Amino acid sequence: MWQEWLLSPISLALLGLVIGSFLNVVIHRLPRMMQRQWWAEVAGQLQDDESHHQVFGKPLPGPAQAVGQAIEEGVHTLPALNLATPRSHCPACGHVIGWSENVPLLSWLRLRGRCAACGTRIPARYPVVELLTGALFAAMAWRFGSQPVTLMWCAVAACLVALSAIDWDTTLLPDSLTQPLAWAGLVAALCGWSGLPVATALTGAVVGYLALWSVYWLFKLVTGKEGMGHGDFKLLAALGAWLGWQAILPIVLMASVLGACVGLGMKATGQLREGRYVPFGPFLAGGGLVLMLAGTDRALAVMGW
Fold first, then answer.
1. What's the CA gap between 255 and 286, in Å, rounded?
2. Could you tell me which residues are beta bridge partners of residue 89?
3. What angle do CA 161, 164, 143 make, to 5 degrees?
4. Phi, then psi, of 146 in degrees rounded to 5
């Protein structure tokens, strides 16, 4: 009885609101954490005389070493940044957000979407992410029932929400999310949690990766340009590990049609700047979520396959 209540759509919707609040932190901070790591690596490379000599056949110039040292010192003097530190605060005035101002959805409504200290507008995307995550958690409970495995599918949905928002903002799909998601799908199949045979999950991961990898290289050979990032390969591989190789084509078709429509709409309204492109990751994630909730067999039947 307690399990049915704890894992009911209502209970998981409330849990999803809380998780969505945490996802807002992940979406905001993870790309910045990655950028810090990249600059630290740049600093190390600019001071690596042996590597420079191997590549260029001559010693590393002094100015490059000085720049590397300056960057390294700058990175080390930055305040700590991770998913727990610093505490959430207003970027405009630095006001630390108290617990009463951080209640998912309700606080945003109570504050009318503004900082309690300086009145700066809080973007509506924060409650939207919370609402979306809550709705997906409720939908997973409806789809898979009041059983522990439902929490696993909720975790997959939360990861896809975070990846979609990060990709939309930055055109990045972090390996720290896509790779664990792919491995978790294979482990879930091995343990019998996802309902897929291991061979189907493994084939799904391979087919998912190679499908977009092939398109990437074909496009590059024809045009000399890169049509998508490598993170898209890894995301589709992860979806294949969770949903099987049969889901790959429906996901790609849905993502391509919806992505093209959104891209054309943004270009027509002037929202797409020259030289920029619409990230593909959010549409891949959306297609994966549709198949999770509808079922791959049902989706294939609707498509007449």
1. 7
2. 96
3. 40
4. -85, 75
The answer to whether 234 and 210 are in contact (CB under 8 A) is no
Question: What pLDDT is stored for residue 274 in this prediction?
Answer: 56
Among 32-36, 93-97, 127-131, 298-302, where is mean pLDDT lowest? 298-302
- Kindly tell me if the per-residue pLDDT of 275 is higher than 60: no
Angle made by CA atoms 13, 126, 282, in degrees to the nearest 5: 80
The pLDDT value recorded for residue 21 is 96
d(CA 292, CA 53): 52
Do 58 and 66 meet the contact criterion of CB atoms below 8 Å apart?
Answer: no
Q: Which of 247, 233, 230, 229 is nearest to 289 (CA)?
A: 247
Longest dimension (CA), the chain: 73
Higher pLDDT: 221 or 301? It is 221
Contacts 24+ apart (CB under 8 A), 163-166: 163/235, 163/281, 163/285, 164/281, 164/282, 164/285, 164/286, 165/23, 165/27, 165/125, 165/129, 165/282, 166/26, 166/27, 166/30, 166/31
C-alpha of 196 from chain center? 24
pTM of the model: 0.94
CA distance linking residue 165 with residue 194, whole number of Å = 25
Q: Within 247-295, where are the H helices?
A: 248-268, 281-294
For the chain, where are the alpha helices, taking DSSP H only? 2-6, 9-46, 49-56, 62-77, 106-110, 125-144, 149-170, 175-190, 198-223, 230-243, 248-268, 281-294, 296-302
In this structure, how many other beta carbons lie within 10 angstroms of the beta carbon of residue 217? 12
Please give the distance of CA 303 from its chain centroid, rounded to a whole number.
28
For 252, other C-beta atoms within 10 Å of its C-beta total 20
Distance of CA 102 to the CA centre of its chain: 22
